[in-house]
């Protein structure tokens, strides 16, 4: 399963406030990612958020099309609420008020994958 990581440029010194924002995150109703026409496009398997100094990173484990995952996330009430709550703590504003703005910001803040290793990728032991 692939992973994606996106960064947020934040003001340092607000780790507790940011942890609270993500700690109150409202999970999505379903892990299923669908296109605008309702076709299955993937799944969000897991997410994690990390912070240090002026950088916050969200890691997403997913299946399927990453742009469809970003579009799905943009439409989720919990994600929209987090993005609104983060605004005062950002050192660089993010245009995430629309689906198009969210997807463009997502793509711009996406870290390049250098390596991914999982025990799921190993051959089964005989």
Describe this structure in words.
- This is SchA/CurD-like domain-containing protein.
- It comes from Kitasatospora kifunensis.
- This protein is α+β, with helices and mostly antiparallel strands and 126 residues long.
- It has one domain: Alpha-Beta Plaits.
- Helices cover 31% and strands 26% of the residues.
- The chain has four helices and four strands.
- A hairpin with a 5-residue loop joins strand 2 and strand 3.
- The longest helix is centred in the middle third of the chain and has 10 residues.
- The two termini are 23 Å apart.
- The mean pLDDT is 91.
- What is the topology, as strand order, of the major beta sheet? 1-4-3-2
Spatial gap, N to C terminus: 23 Å
**CATH architecture call:** 2-Layer Sandwich
Write down the domain tally.
Answer: 1
Bin the helical content. 25-40%
Task: Count the E strands.
Answer: 4
SSE arrangement, N to C: EHEEEHHH
Global outline? globular
List low-pLDDT spans: none
Count up the helices: 4
* CATH third-level topology: Alpha-Beta Plaits
Q: Strand percentage, roughly?
A: 25-35%
Q: Which CATH class?
A: Alpha Beta
Q: Would you tell me the overall average pLDDT?
A: 91
Category by helix and strand content = alpha+beta
* Main sheet overview: 4 strands, antiparallel
What gyration radius follows from the Cα positions, in whole Å? 15 Å
């Amino acid at each position: 399963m692939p992973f994606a990581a996106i960064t947020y440029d934040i003001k340092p010194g607000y780790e507790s406030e940011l942890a609270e924002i993500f700690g109150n995150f409202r999970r999505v109703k379903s892990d299923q990612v669908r296109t605008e026409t309702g076709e299955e496009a993937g799944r969000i398997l897991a997410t994690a958020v990390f912070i240090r100094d002026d950088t916050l990173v969200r890691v997403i484990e997913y299946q399927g099309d990453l742009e469809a995952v970003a579009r799905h996330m943009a439409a989720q009430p919990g994600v929209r609420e987090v993005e609104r709550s983060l605004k005062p703590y950002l050192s660089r504003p993010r245009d995430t008020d629309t689906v198009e703005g969210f997807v463009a910001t997502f793509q711009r803040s996406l870290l390049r994958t250098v390596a991914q290793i999982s025990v799921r990728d190993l051959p089964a032991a005989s």
